């Protein structure tokens, strides 16, 4: 399924340019502090491990918004046939350099051409929060159609009631994007409306500079 241009976010190119600018700093922070490395966060690592177990044998997996490919590579190390896409060309340059054993391509979640029933799993790991509220339902519907029956989808994102306009990120780099925050029950409803049944719900309270966070694991039943 191809999402039509009528549902492209108005700020898509601005957000893409922002992630290109922060990509180098993001990778430096990942390598020097472990920021974004699930191996440093046991509950998040357990979520990815559960996702890997649930998709094994169902077909290929797509990591949407893969950034520099950290989670993509983690899944491949666990025997999952996985590829990654990201809207930022600079992020994909880093992903290919850091994880040459994996397959990566430049694409936004709203620019994907997904064949029906072609994936065993789709992952949206802190990568869909820049999608405007009117856009996300279309993306989830496309993901549903791209999954095989029994296929798995997992989303991780920020919890809140407000939309936060960001002007800097990852070491003070100038950016222009909005972080759309959701209540878990709102996201659950969106997933259900897209035909995806939530089978697990992990909520992590705020701690330090992180959170609150939610991870929802859903399944396409038919």
Automatic annotation (TrEMBL):
Record flagged with keyword Transferase: yes
Name the domain of life this protein comes from: Bacteria
Identify the SUPFAM superfamilies for this entry.
Answer: S-adenosyl-L-methionine-dependent methyltransferases
State if Nucleotide-binding is listed as a keyword. no
Q: Name one Pfam family in it.
A: Methyltransf_25
In this protein, which residues make up the domain named Methyltransferase? 61-151
A GO molecular function for this record? methyltransferase activity
Q: Provide one Gene Ontology biological process annotation.
A: methylation
Q: Which UniProt keywords apply?
A: Methyltransferase, Transferase
Q: Which PANTHER family match?
A: TRANS-ACONITATE 2-METHYLTRANSFERASE, TRANS-ACONITATE 2-METHYLTRANSFERASE-RELATED
Task: Quote the protein name from its UniProt record.
Answer: Class I SAM-dependent methyltransferase
UniProt organism field: Kribbella pittospori
């Amino acid at each position: 399924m191809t999402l039509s241009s009528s549902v492209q976010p108005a700020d898509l190119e601005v957000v893409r340019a922002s992630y290109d600018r922060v990509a180098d700093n993001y990778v430096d922070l990942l390598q020097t502090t472990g920021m974004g490395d699930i191996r440093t966060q046991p509950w998040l690592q357990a979520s990815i491990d559960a996702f890997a177990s649930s998709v094994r044998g169902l077909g290929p997996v797509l990591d949407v918004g893969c950034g520099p490919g950290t989670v993509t590579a983690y899944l491949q190390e666990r025997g999952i046939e996985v590829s990654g896409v990201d809207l930022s060309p600079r992020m994909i340059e880093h992903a290919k350099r850091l994880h040459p054993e994996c397959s990566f391509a430049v694409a936004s979640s709203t620019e994907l051409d997904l064949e029906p029933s072609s994936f065993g799993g789709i992952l949206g790991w802190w990568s869909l929060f820049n999608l405007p509220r009117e856009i996300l339902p279309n993306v989830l519907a496309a993901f549903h159609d791209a999954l095989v029956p029994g296929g798995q989808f997992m989303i991780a994102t920020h919890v809140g009631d407000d939309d936060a306009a960001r002007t800097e990120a990852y070491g003070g780099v100038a950016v222009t994007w909005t972080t759309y925050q959701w209540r878990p029950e709102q996201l659950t409803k969106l997933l259900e409306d897209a035909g995806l049944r939530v089978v697990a719900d992990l909520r992590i309270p705020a701690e330090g500079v992180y959170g609150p966070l939610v991870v929802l694991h859903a399944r396409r039943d038919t």
